[in-house]
Amino acid sequence: MSLAVRVIPCLDVDAGRVVKGVNFVDLRDAGDPVEMATVYDAEGADELTFLDITASSAARDTTYDVVSRTAEQVFIPLTVGGGVRTADDVDRLLRAGADKVGINTAAIGRPEVLSEITHRFGNQVLVLSVDARRSSEQPSGFEVTTHGGRQSVGLDAVAWVKEAVERGVGEVLLNSMDADGTKNGFDLEMIRAVRDVTQVPLVASGGAGRPEHFVEAVEAGADAVLAASVFHFGELTIGDVKNTLRAAGHDVR
User: Fold this and answer.
1) Global confidence as pTM
2) I want to staple 204 with a disulfide (CB 3.0 to 4.6 A). Which of 85, 111, 114, 217 is the partner?
3) What 3-state class would DSSP assign to 40?
4) Is 187 considered catalytic here?
């Protein structure tokens, strides 16, 4: 029995403001995260994802105050990532109002942290965030990057997802760095490759531009679809995406 498809707006936050660029560069201001979260909640978003996109590259903590203010205003699940390094960081974010916590860079440096987090809090709270791009140097054709896509770590993206799930990760947020912000569609080949190695919920991110793109991602194996700029700048609404998914025969929440 398949689960209903979730439609998730993503708030990429830098210095307390929502920003959006192309391939994580040329960032432009998109608004206040608390105000935007409130709007998406009212529009029928199934969840919100809040990513502090410069926390790891700047070696600082996620902005807990913004997380707390956002959580106070919305009544849908909130996933928070960026700068998460330890189980104690997860504890602080859960106390600030997060429902799930995403981890990326720190897990690559020390994979054991995944097991430490899931043993303490359960796998339902832990999301592996994977920023991947195409690479002929890796067996799957996709490599893992860190620090907002600025650094390659020489790790096969599909193999890394498989390992992380074995270590207890409960969900995977798969972001195509090549497609990010381009609005040319999700990397369907990447979605299929990851779907083939894991059964945990898979969230597709990177490249959404038209309602049909979300349908393609779901049919490639995504359980949830995430987008940022098309929602932030009013090009699409949550309703547009859900209606298109329904018309294609998919259950939505």
Assistant:
1) 0.92
2) 217
3) helix
4) no
pLDDT digits (tens, 9 = 90+) for 105-122: 999 999 999 999 999 999
Pull the structure tokens for residue 113.
Answer: 């942290």
Is 196 one of the catalytic residues?
no
Class of domain 6-247: alpha beta
d(CA 17, CA 211) in angstroms, rounded, equals: 26
Distance separating the N- and C-terminal Cα atoms of the chain: 15
Q: Other C-beta atoms within 10 Å of 72: how many?
A: 12
d(CA 194, CA 231): 26
Q: Which one of the listed residues 46, 89, 131, 223 is annotated catalytic?
A: 131
- Residue listed under structure tokens 């381009």: 182
pLDDT tens, residue by residue, 22-78: 444 555 566 788 888 999 999 999 999 998 866 544 444 557 888 888 899 888 999
